Amino acid sequence: MFQCLMKKEKGIKVMEKVLGFIKLIRPVNCLMMSFAVLVGASFSLTEANISSLMLKLLLGFITAFTFTGASMAINDYYDREIDRINEPSHPIPSGLVTPGESLIFATVLTVIGLGAAVLTNISCLILAVVSWTVMVFYNTKGKRTGFLGNMMVSLCVAIPFAYGSLLIEDNLRPTSLVFSGLAFLANTGREITKGIIDVPGDKVKNIRTVAVVHGERTAAYVAAAFYLVAVTLSGLPVLLGLVSFWFIPPVLAADIGFIISSLMLIHEPTRMNAKRVKNMVLAWMILGLVAFIIEGLGL
Per-residue pLDDT for 86 more than 90? Predict the structure, then answer.
């Protein structure tokens, strides 16, 4: 009886550890970046070549997923003291994952991602190394710079679209570059919004976010400006004739969401409301990604 209870308790602890690692890498973020690679690649795919390029698509998916997961794990390692204040439920401050385990996990994910990039092509490998370098610099040094750090994160979010284009043709398509720009703008707004949420911990660690240096209301206006510029430029692919009609409905819905979120944030730039807006913006970004997928697949 006692042995059964011990085995059951051990099994529960293993499951908790596994769930801790899953939470650590933010699987939704990982999947978004992986699908962004596939979207970037889809603009160069045809029915004739898709079957022959399945391995490259899988390798690109793996690189994006593992690199994003590694970034999340490294970020939580360096943010562990701040998260005790801002996000105590995160895996490290909650005790689900130790700091050492997060670094080991990040290393394993990085090796897998680089291995997949090596097997793809030289252009993808170079871009993967650039992305990884920016990611590591942000987590170790860049985060303290505030706004510049926000742009580093957004650069890593924008890169997968370009990576997907290089995956297939070894050159950058205009459509992929436009989508990279939109992703950069929307995510920069989201990072600035996140800074409003993190003010208590960021002040302790002297992280110079827009919210810490200029106040929450100014940060709300800056974040909203990035959202609204992204909304304005989202019509560019339509005007340039780069997309079909079916791209418009989901993008229009996402644009309305960004506008509503911007107004909500400006009206009430509090920590609680910023957290609500941040989650809403992620939903609008996913909706925008759906539009890109529809266009890329020619649906």
Answer: no
